[in-house]
Automatic annotation (TrEMBL), chains A, B:
Residues 25-205 form the Aminotransferase class V domain. Keywords: Aminotransferase, Pyridoxal phosphate, Transferase. The modification N6-(pyridoxal phosphate)lysine is found at K184. This is Aminotransferase, class V. Substrate binds at R347. PANTHER family: ALANINE--GLYOXYLATE AMINOTRANSFERASE, AMINOTRANSFERASE CLASS V. GO terms for molecular function: alanine-glyoxylate transaminase activity; L-serine-pyruvate transaminase activity. It comes from Caulobacter vibrioides (strain ATCC 19089 / CIP 103742 / CB 15) (Caulobacter crescentus). One of its GO terms (biological process) is glycine biosynthetic process, by transamination of glyoxylate. Its cofactor is pyridoxal 5'-phosphate. InterPro entries: Aminotrans_V_dom, PyrdxlP-dep_Trfase, PyrdxlP-dep_Trfase_major, PyrdxlP-dep_Trfase_small, SP_NH2Trfase/AEP_transaminase. Belongs to the class-V pyridoxal-phosphate-dependent aminotransferase family.
């Protein structure tokens, strides 16, 4: 019940134990094409360039930034938590110039402030985190796409913690590149990063295309732009690999491709609206339960993610021991916190298979017991009852 | 029966379907420590810093190079094939200055030429591929470590295609960083890259340590050196993650960790010498069988890898159709070739679970039939008989 990685859906676990195929076997490239189509559905996009990166969600972020940003480029980073800082950190390693538009941890950034910065800086890219699990806040992104288009910037969104759990309407937002990971609401393991890229962004990236010497004569034309600073994360090469050209790059990780495929199949079988509702209901039930126990919820409730909840540690309660007892006595993992919130809030996720009634109720019952052992007495049964009431 | 990826060992497939654990769960970090110990055995090293990178073998290469090389650094690349070119390509993206020491495809580089270049250039790093599957050649590396030590250079080896199939004695070589992948002789899927790093190389990398802003206060001291140009491949951060500090970085991909662990357990249960012999015998049997069929083997036989064999395409035989018929009629994949060898040689692997008698014999029997259908008549049964004779 942490903020991810979470338990993997049994069908996804099973998919990973299937024998692999050669990466250019037509049956396997057929699965790759299926994955592209499935994630168009998950991302609510028509983008041709929709596929997965062989690495964790952080690999997806780095691929997006290093393939887009050239040294000296300006980037506006919308930041209100650890993962906003991570975007800036990666952009700086691309030798881009970072301008922050910030809110304090537990709040979200005002879109007007983003517009002001974009007008002033005229960046190549505006980079945003949708749901920052470090603060449990979901940044409103509905206006940012139009701001970017009006000022000739590309829009990047890190949707690792929200994709398939909260609404991530890529085309409606007008986002150019959106990346995620499987280990949150998608209910898979980390290690594969779904990505979608608009034609506009792809055109920019292909302008930096470079074909490996060892493959000379087999690739497309080289672009006029500066070579991308990473080979592994060179999205121009990776798109050539996922295209009909099938130009050799890395060796696709078959078990993770199968996992990504099964995650997306499960999402689309359930349906996006039903899945968003399930996550919202689980988050509401968890929140109601925790409040009924007399605990305080962290952050601006108006912008709280549905799928992760921060809890202020009550006075006199041992932070680490509560976590340890949840794990050792109940086999339930809850999350600690980062940076300024270390030791101050716990984070409980309700994601993927854990966004279900029994998981919420079991966690609240266990939490009540563990807090009681630490000297914090909640009204007996109040948490479970309040959560059950949300489920009706 | 390609040059990798190959079929995955059934125990490794099973390991990947185990439910995952939180990345900081003591049981999970225990498995991480086990993986470190197991790969010390596989790499024949005492190096403390022995672990895995979450990505394919190419991710391991990039992590080694980008964490070691600073812009302007000199690197000597020992090159005689596609994967030597890849090392140079990645080094160039690190803005390092590449000096090649080269041999033509199908040959190996003379260590004396390496020494001459190292004396002249005084590089930060000498980068070598051990077994380059594009040419089927194994580069002799026994003298390179001493050359590097004598001239203050670090030695990097890409052992993707040979680790656990041919002798890779890291400490005896005096290699500073060696990386691999699971999808060749280790008998796993691609997607996890084992790496080992000497104390000397680790010290250099830690001099470039940088702690993420979002984790401020929880990490070690920042180094004086220039920040590493990648976050995902920043080995200083990744070592901090694998150390007792457990400093958060990426979210470890649990199924691939379990796969890497099971691959190493299988290797050490079999024993390295027995495993090397098994690969050598399978390669010798395959070679004998192909030659008995009247086919010509590609490259310098004195330096041929034991676990992959290149075959010149006989005149009048359709390159792609042979591959397609092997796959569609016999469900046996064989490899095509890269760059100057495209359309000229096929490559047949004998790696991992495929380095076994029945796999060699089945492949030769099928190959004889398919070549006959293409108008190339080998003496009936000669390939299978010659291979069986090698097995005695």
């Amino acid at each position: 019940m942490g903020p991810g990685p979470i338990n993997v859906h049994p069908r996804v676990l099973r998919a990973m134990s299937v024998q692999l195929l050669g990466q250019f076997d037509p049956e396997f490239t057929g699965y790759m094409n299926e994955v592209m189509a499935l994630y168009r559905g998950v991302f609510q996009t028509q983008n041709r360039w929709t596929f997965t990166i062989d690495g964790t969600s952080r690999a997806g972020i780095e691929a997006a930034l290093v393939s887009t940003l050239q040294p000296g480029d300006d980037v506006v980073v919308v930041n209100a938590g650890r993962f906003g800082l991570l975007l800036a950190e990666i952009a700086e390693r691309c030798d881009a110039k970072v301008t922050f538009v910030e809110a304090s941890w537990g709040a979200v950034v005002d879109p007007q402030a983003v517009e002001d910065a974009v007008k002033r800086v005229k960046p190549r890219l505006v980079a945003c985190v949708h749901g920052d699990t470090s603060t449990t806040m979901a940044q409103p992104l509905g206006e940012i796409g139009a701001i970017c288009r009006a000022h000739g910037a590309l829009m990047y969104v890190d949707a690792t913690a929200t994709l398939s759990g909260m609404d991530v309407p890529v085309d409606a937002w007008g986002a150019d590149i959106v990346t995620a990971g499987l280990q949150k609401c998608l209910g898979g393991p980390s290690g594969s990063a779904p990505i979608t890229i608009s034609d506009q962004a792809a055109e920019h990236i292909f302008s930096r295309r470079h074909v490996e010497k060892g493959l000379a004569g087999t690739g497309g034309a080289a672009g006029a732009g500066r070579r991308i600073a990473s080979n592994y994360f060179d999205l121009a090469m990776i798109m050539d690999y996922w295209s009909e050209k099938r130009l050799n790059h890395h060796t696709e990780c078959a078990p993770m491709l199968f996992a990504a495929r099964e995650c997306a199949r499960l999402v689309l079988e359930e349906g996006l609206p039903a899945r968003f509702d399930r996550h919202a209901q689980a988050g509401a039930a968890m929140t109601a339960g925790l409040e009924a126990m007399g605990l305080s919820i962290y952050g601006d409730k108006a912008h709280k993610m549905t799928n992760v909840t921060g809890i202020w540690v009550p006075k006199g309660v041992d932070y680490d021991r509560v976590k340890a007892r949840m794990r050792t006595d109940f086999e339930i993992e809850i999350g600690s916190a980062f940076g300024p919130l270390t030791g101050k809030i716990w984070r409980i996720g309700t994601m993927g298979v854990n966004a279900r009634k029994h998981a919420v109720l079991q966690t609240l019952a266990a939490f009540e017991a563990v807090l009681r052992w630490e000297g914090f007495s909640a009204p007996a049964g109040a948490g479970v009852d309040a959560a059950a009431k949300v489920y009706g």
